[in-house]
């Protein structure tokens, strides 16, 4: 899975440096277009193809830093990361689902 990510890093050069105000999906589309996540550029009905793409580059929830492992087996990446709505650097809020005032850090 890291092979694909490394190819992206070496292939992209400075492309990420200018993407601070980009929507997360647009920043990803700079890698391989809409096909970075979608088969044939269009969303799948069940989201399975997109979820597999996330995992292929980033790994699974269990392998990531907090708050990710606590949600392994319960959530998909896109339950928290609205990739077409949130901007790069904008982190998901806990209170969308937890009402006890917890935060990411
Ligand atoms: C980072 C991965 C990623 C990239 C790159 C990406 N998408 Fe998506 N897209 C998703 C995911 C995940 C969903 C389903 C959940 C959502 O809407 O956020 C989605 C949903 C959509 C939808 C349905 C939206 C809706 O409101 O029903 C369309 C249309 C779409 N994408 C088009 C595109 C196009 C066109 C591109 C290229 C310009 C693109 N996407 C690039 C991940 C991505
Ligand atoms: C429970 C909600 C949640 C889920 C599910 C989730 N994330 Fe996150 N993610 C976050 C939060 C919150 C942060 C910011 C953490 C912090 O403050 O350091 C984050 C950070 C990240 C970052 C680093 C962003 C940065 O600026 O450092 C990446 C990459 C990421 N997530 C990818 C994923 C992927 C891929 C998945 C699915 C395998 C996923 N996330 C699932 C909430 C979630
Ligand atoms: C082709 C490889 C690839 C795919 C597929 C991919 N990502 Fe990424 N993603 C990256 C790279 C590279 C970065 C920038 C470096 C980093 O933050 O890890 C990134 C960054 C992110 C970030 C951090 C954005 C920020 O605020 O800094 C999130 C969140 C994220 N990806 C979620 C997802 C989700 C959700 C999916 C699936 C819908 C996905 N990624 C699919 C390679 C990928
Ligand atoms: C999309 C909904 C969603 C979001 C957003 C979300 N969580 Fe969760 N989280 C869940 C679900 C569902 C569970 C499993 C059921 C439970 O224990 O409440 C869970 C469980 C947890 C657990 C393990 C059980 C517990 O309650 O201690 C931790 C820790 C946790 N989440 C932390 C966070 C943090 C920190 C954030 C914000 C960065 C966050 N979550 C955002 C849905 C979410």
State the shape. globular
Largest sheet data:
none
In the predicted model, the low-confidence regions spanning at least 5 consecutive residues are 6-19
Kindly state the mean pLDDT as a whole number?
86
Question: Percent helix among the residues?
Answer: 25-40%
Signal peptide: 1-20
Protein name: Cytochrome c3
Main location: periplasm
Organism: Ferrimonas sediminum
Which key phrases capture this entry?
single chain, mainly alpha, Flavocytochrome C3, Chain A, domain 2, 33% helix, 0% strand, binds heme C, iron, Tetrahaem_cytochrome, Multihaem_cyt_sf, heme, electron transport
How would you describe what is shown here?
The chain has 105 residues and is mainly α. It has one domain (2-96): Flavocytochrome C3, Chain A (Flavocytochrome C3, Chain A, domain 2, Orthogonal Bundle), CATH 1.10.1130.10. It has helices spanning 2-12, 24-32, 48-58, 77-80. It starts with a helix and ends in a 25-residue tail after the last helix. The model is unreliable at 6-19 (pLDDT under 50). One heme C binds next to helix 2. One heme C binds at residues 67, 70-71, 74-75, 79-80, 92, 94, 96-98, 102, 104. Its cofactor is heme c. InterPro entries: Multihaem_cyt_sf (IPR036280), Tetrahaem_cytochrome (IPR012286). Keywords: Electron transport, Heme, Iron, Metal-binding, Signal, Transport.
């Amino acid at each position: 899975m890291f092979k694909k990510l490394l190819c992206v890093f070496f292939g992209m050069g400075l492309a990420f440096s200018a993407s601070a105000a980009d929507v997360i999906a647009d920043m990803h589309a700079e890698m391989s277009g809409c096909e970075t996540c979608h088969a044939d550029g269009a969303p799948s009905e069940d989201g399975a193809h997109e979820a597999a793409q996330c995992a292929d580059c980033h790994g699974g929830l269990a392998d990531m830093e907090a708050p990710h492992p606590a949600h392994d087996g319960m959530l998909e990446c896109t339950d928290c990361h609205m990739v077409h709505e949130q901007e790069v650097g904008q982190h998901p809020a806990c209170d969308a689902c937890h009402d006890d005032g917890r935060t990411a850090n």
